[in-house]
Amino acid sequence: MLGTLTTVEVERLLASEFTGRIGCHADGRTYVVPVTYAYKSGNVYCHSAEGRKVRMMRKNSDVCFEIDRVEDVGNWKSVIGEGRFHELGGREALEAMDVLIARFAELERAQERHPSYVLRASEAESSRADGRAIVLFRIQLGEKTGRFERTSP
Amino acid sequence: MLGTLTTVEVERLLASEFTGRIGCHADGRTYVVPVTYAYKSGNVYCHSAEGRKVRMMRKNSDVCFEIDRVEDVGNWKSVIGEGRFHELGGREALEAMDVLIARFAELERAQERHPSYVLRASEAESSRADGRAIVLFRIQLGEKTGRFERTSP
Is B29's CB within 8 Å of A72's CB? Predict the structure, then answer.
């Protein structure tokens, strides 16, 4: 059975996943890159080292954001959303960091593993990782489409 | 530890996964969509009902293909490849169908679940699903980049 997720199911999937993919396009090239994220009030918060995806999104802020949860070929859910890139600075960047740290601390508690991630996120407040600046940004989601397939008995 | 996958590891990940995402761009819009696929000799084989992604790839055949395997926020692998869309017809389409059916039969045997998928793939040979034509295509991969992070003890 193929179907469409309800608005509530779309929001729930966005809030429960923590990895998604950003699709961006600049200079005639399309790029899809996985990111870890925290979702809050229609925004996907991310942090990233300076690099290709950030440079592309600065050139063209119209992006696509995708998440999926795949059990197997016949059982999956996905959400695809139109998005707009906003680079964050000052207080907005610190607020985004709080959103990310709170989300990943929550995941830590659920998993009771890998405290390293939260430490890394905290270190990013110093705005340096491997000598590259850390960029905080949000993808403001517009229209979202959720789909699913279920073939389990 | 963040690192780069070797060529062998990139090929192995492409061959072992069965869902990925295509990023395409046309008419000023970027779209990322999950697909099930079979990988063979540098090509990602897919089938799809007629729809948005196929229309976009016909307009602009330069796409991006992405796969990832995420254990948790600190342990993941991903491959991102430049790709070119080729719509398949005639004997090429039948060969692509064979590649897909063989791959999903293999997954069936591994999982011993969901025989429905292979049946559905076979039915697609009739070139109709829900009244929409089925399109067979391959994404010919060019440059590929593999990355990983490992923070497990």
Answer: no
The residue type of A65 is: F
A29 CA: distance to closest CA in chain B (Å): 7
Least CB-CB distance to B64: which of A32, A62, A65?
Answer: A32
User: A138: distance to nearest CA of chain B, Å?
Assistant: 17
pLDDT in tens, B65-89: 999 999 888 889 999 999 999 999 9
Sign of CA dihedral A33, B28, B58, A142: positive
Q: Which two tokens stand for residue B47?
A: 């089938």
Q: What are the chain B neighbours of A114 within 8 Å (beta carbons)?
A: 72-75, 151-152
| Chain B residue whose CA is closest to A70 | B19
The minimum CA-CA distance between B126 and chain A, rounded to whole Å, is 19
When pLDDT is cut at 50, 70 and 90, the band that residue A97 belongs to is very high
Q: With cut-offs at 50, 70 and 90, classify the pLDDT of residue A136.
A: very high
Q: Which of B62, B74, B114 minimises the CB distance to A72? A: B114
pLDDT band at A132 (very low <50, low <70, confident <90, very high): confident
Q: Which residues contact B42 (CB under 8 A, 6 or more apart)?
A: B140, B141
Local structure of A95: helix, strand or coil: helix
pLDDT confidence of B131, banded at 50, 70, 90? low
- Output the pLDDT for position A107: 87
Q: Are strands B38-40 and A2-4 parallel, antiparallel or unpaired?
A: unpaired
Statement: residue B96 has pLDDT above 50: yes
Q: How far apart are CA A51 and CA A133, in angstroms?
A: 9
